[in-house]
Amino acid sequence: FMSIAVLPFFMIERSIINKEVKNKLYRPIQYQIARFLTAIPGIALIAIISTILVVLPSGINGFGIFFVILLLSLMIAESLTMFVSLLVPHYIIGMALVAGLYGMFMLCQGFLIVKSDIPGYFIWIYYIAFHTYSFEGFMYNEFSGISKLNSGLYSNGEDVLEFYSMGKVKIWKDIVILICYCIIIEIFTTVVMAIMLRRKKIQWKGSNQIHSHPPQIKAL
Question: Exposed, middle or buried by CB within 10 Å (0-12, 13-18, 19+), for 186?
Answer without folding.
Answer: buried
